[in-house]
Amino acid sequence: MTNDKVVLRVENLKKSFGDNEVLKGVSFEMKEGETKVIIGPSGTGKSTLLACINMLVSPNDGRIWLENEEITSAKNINKIRQEIGFVFQDFGLFNHLTALRNVMVGLTKVKKMEKSAAKDLAMEELKRVGLEKEAELYPAQLSGGQKQRVGIARALAMQPKIILFDEPTSALDPELIGEVLSVMKNLAESGMTMLVVTHEMGFARTVSDEIIFMEHGHIVEQSSPEEMFKNPKNPRTKEFLFKLNELYGE
Ligand code: ADP
Ligand code: MG
Question: Are 160 and 82 in contact (CB under 8 A)?
Fold first, then answer.
């Protein structure tokens, strides 16, 4: 479910840490409702790319737009950050807050929403990820898969224009990965715009509109899942997919 409205545009993005040039000119765009998956070897700059989009890291060069607003030169960073959801590998929940409070906190503290309205909205989002019964539990009482679904509910509650996922299932035991991917699949089908770094090739194949293969700070190849898996053009893509299959394939 996509349309032609561009939600995110990244243009010639560059980022170095000291002498280490991590992003060497990355460009792509995301249309409304699109799900794109980023794959690539570790250390390739995938997390740095997401961190630049979320303005946790400032790029050395290049530009990023969220809809019509250039965020790389924006003054009101906090407002824009509210419009970009982020789901972390290690969940990033507050351990001293219940699931419900974890989802509410951005609404009351950042969006300055009334507590009762925030609670209603937070419950709705917990329902959406199948956790209404767990609302009053603390992270320590939840499984990894449930924690990550709280993380997703928290991102959703802010009603972002796009959600960025950085290896959302990498910290999970294998039997808990499916429940998180299934929530993400539903989200994608409901029209959310999603940029997902993952090694889950089943998800990439069946849910994504496009796969981006990154290596050494470059986008090496970008195409539909069918193209990427059946007919990878670049030998590096071929090699990487082969290795992934050896590591994660059945
Ligand atoms: P990936 O997510 O693809 O594994 P990262 O974006 O995490 O890759 O890292 C890319 C490179 O950038 C690595 O060499 C990493 O050590 C380096 N790097 C990432 N963040 C920082 C940082 N805050 N300071 C210095 N180097 C960093
Ligand atoms: Mg990473």
Answer: yes
Q: Nearest C-alpha to atom 11 of ligand 1 is from which residue? A: 43
170, two tokens: 């990498």
Ligand closest to CA 167: 2
Query: What is the tens place of the pLDDT at every residue in 118-166?
Result: 999 999 999 999 999 999 999 999 999 999 999 999 999 999 999 999 9
Q: Indicate if ligand 1 lies below 6 Å from the C-beta of 46.
A: yes
List, as ranges, residues with CB under 5 A of the ion ligand 2. Answer: 46-47
Predicted structure pTM score: 0.96
H/E element holding 13? Answer: strand 6-17
User: How far is 104 from 70, CA to CA, in rounded Å?
Assistant: 28
CB 237 within 8 A of CB 218: no
List Cα–Cα distances, 102 to 98, 113, 145, 171, 177, in angstroms. Answer: 6, 14, 15, 19, 21
The runs of H, that is alpha helices, within the chain are 46-53, 77-82, 99-105, 115-128, 144-157, 174-189, 201-207, 225-230, 235-248
The C-alpha atoms of residue 196 and residue 46 are separated, in whole angstroms, by 10
